Amino acid sequence: MGRIKKKGTAGQAKNFITRTQAVRKLQISLPDFRRLCIFKGIYPREPRNKKKANKSSTPSTTFYYSKDIQYLLHEPLLQKFRDHKALAKKINRALGKGQFKGASRLEKNLTPRMRIDHIIRERYPTFVDAVRDLDDALCMVYLFANLPSTEEVPHKTIALCQRLCNEFEHYLIVSHSLRKSFLSIKGVYYQATIQGQDVLWLVPYKFVQRVTGDVDFRIMATFVDFYTNLLGFVNFRLYTTLGLVYPPKFNQLSDEQGGELGAFTLQGHGLGQEEDQDEEITSVTTNPKAQAIADALAQEEAGAIEETSQNEDSSMAVKDTEEAPVDDAPADLAGAMIPGSSDFDQALQLQVDDTPYATLFSDMSVFLSRESPRHALEFLLRSFGCKRIGWEESLGDGAFKSDENWSGWTHQVVDRPGAPSTGGSAPHDETEAGAQSAADSQQRVPDRAYVQPQWVWDCVNAGRILRTDLYARGATLPPHLSPWVKAKKGEYDPTQPLEPADTVDAAEQEEGAAQPLANGASKEEEEEEEEEEESDLSDGMQEDLSEDEDESADETKADIDETLGDLSDDDDDDSASVSSAEVDRQSHQLELEAEAAGVKPSAKKSAKNAKPSAPAKSEKAKQKEREARKEQEEVERLKGMMSKRKRMLYEKMQYGNKKREDEAEKLKSKRRKLEATKQRAGGKS
Amino acid sequence: MSAPGRGRKRKLLTRQPEETVANVVDETERFASLELDDSGSEAPSVASGSASEVEIEGEDEEDSDNEGESNGKVTGLIEEELRALKPTRASRSRRNAAGANGEDEEASDDDAEDSDEAGFEQVDENDLELNYTVSTDANGNPRYIYKEIEPGYETDDSDAPDNENTIGDIPLTFYDAYPHIGYDINGKKIMRPAKGDALDTLLNSIELPEGWTGLTDPATGKPLELTQEELEMLKKITRNEIPEEGYDPYPEMFDYFSRQTEIMPLSAAPEPKRRFVPSKHEAKKVMKIVKAIREGRIQPYRPPEETEEEETDPWTFDVWADEKPRPDHPMNVPAPKLPPPGYEESVHPPPEYLPDQEEKDTWLAQDPEEREKEFLPSDYDALHKVPGYDRFVKERFERSLDLYLAPRVRRSKLDIDPESLLPKLPNPEELRPYPTTCAAVFSGHEGRVRSIAVDPTGTILASGADDGTVRLWELLTGRQLQRIRIGDEPINAVRWRPGRDALILAAASGNEVYFVIPLTIPNMTPAVESASRTVLDMGFGHATGKGDTNSASQKIPGSTWSRPGSKLEEQGVLLKIVVRATVKVICFHRRGEYFATVAPSGQSHAVAIHTLSQHRTQLPFRKLKGLPQTATFHPSKPLFFVATQRSVRIYDLSRQQLVKSLQPGAKWISSIDLHPGGDNLIVGAYDKRMMWHDLELSIHPYRTLRFHTKAVRAVKVHPGGLPLFVDASDDGTCQVYHGRVVDDLMENATIVPLKTLRGHKVTSQLGVLDVDWHPRNPWCVTAGADGTCRLWT
């Protein structure tokens, strides 16, 4: 016989450690522990048996995996934290003595520089692991890129976040790895596929974010600290795999003028690097000049817009050819890189893979109106291959052309109210638009498609260019659907038409049937209320054992059914008669309406047709109902023989299914109603 | 010797062994005679004292002055002070005493005299001289008596006490019994100093002597007294001050070498030349630096630029340059990704996803934490109308909290078809026949029908209801044959007596049981009628035997058997039994000779077994555990089943003992019924379930069936051999089961639910109250709280 095992020396009691114990073991303060946990990605666990893990003490606590904490003991950051604490003491002492200069010197010289690259390596042993975990990082970094600088969020952090975001976007543009995007009420969702991993992130709309008091920015800042590091390394890796220099060249001037994406210039590695650089630098510097000239010309000839001068056009064309390679980074790069090198191959591979995504907007020139979200559109269009994107100068630097009237624009994104153009041909509208508002001032340019921003998103998600007339200015847009929802069996799919069985009149029938039933129920209730609580069996409390009261609806039904023994037939007749009466009434109503509107024989006909068909249909429905009831009974029969545990499990599953079905049913019925009203409206008009 | 007694205060006590007389030699004003407490124990030691000893207690002011001076030099800790103080004081006082003695009595103490003289000699003369004298001791041997060493500056041991107690570090209490308190270096006894008596202490307390501390010097046993100076010094030491009197720790500094040019300089030497000649050494040093600057080794100082440090990006290398995939650890739980947005989150969702007014209101009324969705789907017809999402930061923050604070656990998602959980049961169609449809409705009762019974021939149905009537119906048609009004109280139970020879119906109303011979029914032939009458009347012969003392019922008369009265007799009610409490259940023994009544509120009279032929009542249970609910007889063995609230107890009637106690596990049993085979028992309970007990298997149920949403009120097994049983519940339904019992002991009974019979209306939470089978056919009859009975075929 072996030794008697002592309690609490093995298993769960040993594997888990409470937070207090962990903090004591590490000898750090709780905020430091929090930072360490965030950096190292250590999270609490839920032990399988809490009592065992807590050594039989009952209060609820947070548990960490013991080995995680043990591992933390050797963390180099821990020493940095201690150094920091020591420094804080020194600075405090200096301040107490009034030695402000000394304090600042201490702070400057002794502040420990924390590097967390080893942690990134540790947490993500491979690059793919890092990409897999990029969702939260991107969301957070994008949020901070859009925050105003405050005391808690220093300007530096924001600038860094903005830079990283733009760099990442540049990568996506070059590699054409953006896949889907979605306009949600929270912000814009983007999904990219990087090295086979789907990365989904959310970018807020450009508004001032509401910050409530219960948001602790210290925690957020720790996360951002980690995420910016992670994203920096990821960007480095992404750029280098494409053969690009990281960090890309950043033009401060352009950024200050709102260049955003345009403030960065990508450079390739390799032999042609120097030439590239020169070219790019010159191009960047010349770009605003050219723009200025173009703008000046445009202003001069503001009066005569319709006849855009030939020479200007040609000059533009010349510029176009000049500038094309600038924006066309990947093509440029491919030229610059040495064929045969691994980088080159990879980049080529990427491009070959992504052809459908790379060419979606490639033969379009898009002008973004002032009111459209420029950054999101620019990013989206460029990542799907659009080379020529222009916007007004007031929107910022970096436009291909800021002249709205340039004849080369094939599409213009507008987001302002206005009458939708009736056809694809613009000339009809010109007068209308001119009459409508002088503020618009710009007349419609022929051969240019005016679309609302949603068109771009829908095109991206559909993977093809959609009809522009549906998205014309002022038009009622088709619903914008999330590209990630895959309709499962039994769930409602708004893209599919309603099933033929659930037609409009079925819905109406339902509506009609609901009313008498409800009346019956209320009557029944009244009756019950009238009945006073009679003395029960003299046993008294025996009824108490069975508590829940049954609702009255079932009872009434049962009552009706069972009086003559045969359940179904009687019931069928009953409700069938009700429904037929209802249908009669409705058809009559329809006839009256038709007469009032002006006689339409078809309506009458349909009403008459409906009359004989209704009972048949109800018969069918009854049949269905009967079967359903039978099935229900069978299930009940079987359920009674299950063990309690199994039954609970079964009921839980059924509950989930039922909830889903109810949800779908609710949506379906809503749609039915909407369609019915639409039909009615259509019929009336 | 220093001059003794210059105006000193002295307390002197001389004690002679022969005559204990205190000879006070003192011219001062203070006189105190201290009497030692001369107890018997003291006497021998006193007697044994070879010589009179003089002890002095007291201090003279001068001495203390001297000591104060001498002590002034001593700086150190208290102990050292005390140690230093003691010997000098003691020696001095002793010397004083010796001097005094010398004046008064001649050579009272030789030793002291000698030593004193020797001491003087020693000091005065050379060291070469012997420092001892030889004398003879009591035995006539030579005894060397050393002179006392006078501590002086020339002696090594300057603080050696001259009259030290040599007993060592033992408590003085060891000497409590002796007049002395130790021995000095010469082995002489150091006598205990005299202690003051009560009066003295009182005087002392009134007028505290100078320097009184209340402490006793442990070495001498005398009260330790300190002078004012000593006290001051101690006080200073305790305050961490320098104990010396008048010491100034911060004396005025006199600046000898000040910046002021003195009129009279300290040195009158002229300024040396070197003060006026440039230093060659320095020139050398300067040249060295100049050279270094010229050579560019030393850059001229430039103040550090106040430009902000350009923090270089840390990401200048590929972290994943040599990546190696790491196998996943089971304890690694990656954070779950957020689900992608659905249709309802769109800025322009399909219209059916938009909430209507009602949904909007409920959403707004809900607490933000209870909301299923954190946003309301809304529709914007243009993108520029979409507002910012005000919970964005909050949601991000919550996500980050989740990432580092939420405990993670791996849960395996159960991905099974719920249908696969359902048990496989035979198709009920294969198990026909069983009752499925309602064939007849017996309506007529006003009030709940509490009990029904189908007669043994299977043609007549008897029912008892709240309206106090017992009605007889034709089973197949539902026609009412007879209506017997028994009383105003509800009829709780109706049962037919088993056996076809006589047709007798028992009905319980209140605490009375009536026996009815229905006269109007078609199969009541005269033969049957007479047989029935004989059965009922047989007992009247025994009625006289009431005086029997042997039966249990006689001690406390449990019942009275009588005719019910002419009015009822006309209707066929021929016998009435009155028991103590309201009878709820009647059950007949198979042969019809005995029947049992159960009255749950009757306490010791709750269960009664009646003998019909003798009109006799027995109360088998003096006391029952729990409230009895129902009872039944075993069909073949002399066993009696009594169901209390929680258990079913089986008694052997012949041996009068408990055989078994079944534990169905229900909270409150409503009814029980035995399978005709006698080995299986079904139990219905108010807590919505029904139990099937195999009596040979276990005391726990073989199968528990939960088919009802409310209490099960009655259970019944088909008596005619068909494998059917049924229960009736308050939810208005009855469930019919197939329950086949095989003779083979190895095989368990097969139980299959067959059909739910729905038809009775639930009135005031009561549904079906009783159920009974047709004796042969697969038909059953139910009694409902809605006042009807139904026949199911």
From TrEMBL, chain A:
Residues 582-591, 617-639, 658-667 have a biased composition (Basic and acidic residues). InterPro entries: BRCT_dom, BRCT_dom_sf, PES. GO terms for biological process: maturation of 5.8S rRNA from tricistronic rRNA transcript (SSU-rRNA, 5.8S rRNA, LSU-rRNA); maturation of LSU-rRNA from tricistronic rRNA transcript (SSU-rRNA, 5.8S rRNA, LSU-rRNA). Residues 524-553, 561-575 have a biased composition (Acidic residues). GO terms for cellular component: nucleoplasm; PeBoW complex; preribosome, large subunit precursor. Residues 303-324, 410-446, 476-685 are annotated as: Disordered. Its main location: nucleus. Residues 356-473 form the BRCT domain. The keyword rRNA processing applies. SUPFAM superfamilies: BRCT domain. It holds the Pfam family Pescadillo_N. It is found in: Nucleus, Nucleolus; Nucleus, Nucleoplasm. Keywords: Nucleus, Ribosome biogenesis, rRNA processing. The keyword Nucleus applies. CDD domains: BRCT_pescadillo_like. It comes from the Eukaryota. GO terms for molecular function: ribonucleoprotein complex binding; RNA binding. Component of the NOP7 complex, which is required for maturation of the 25S and 5.8S ribosomal RNAs and formation of the 60S ribosome. Belongs to the pescadillo family. Component of the NOP7 complex, composed of ERB1, NOP7 and YTM1. Within the NOP7 complex ERB1 appears to interact directly with NOP7 and YTM1. The NOP7 complex also associates with the 66S pre-ribosome. This is Pescadillo homolog. The lineage of its organism: Eukaryota, Fungi, Dikarya, Ascomycota, Pezizomycotina.
UniProtKB/TrEMBL annotation, chain B:
Keywords: Nucleus, Repeat, Ribosome biogenesis, rRNA processing, WD repeat. Signal peptide: none annotated. Residues 336-353 have a biased composition (Pro residues). GO terms for cellular component: nucleoplasm; PeBoW complex; preribosome, large subunit precursor. WD repeats lie at residues 442-483, 768-793. Residues 1-139, 321-358 are annotated as: Disordered. This is Ribosome biogenesis protein ERB1. The gene is ERB1.
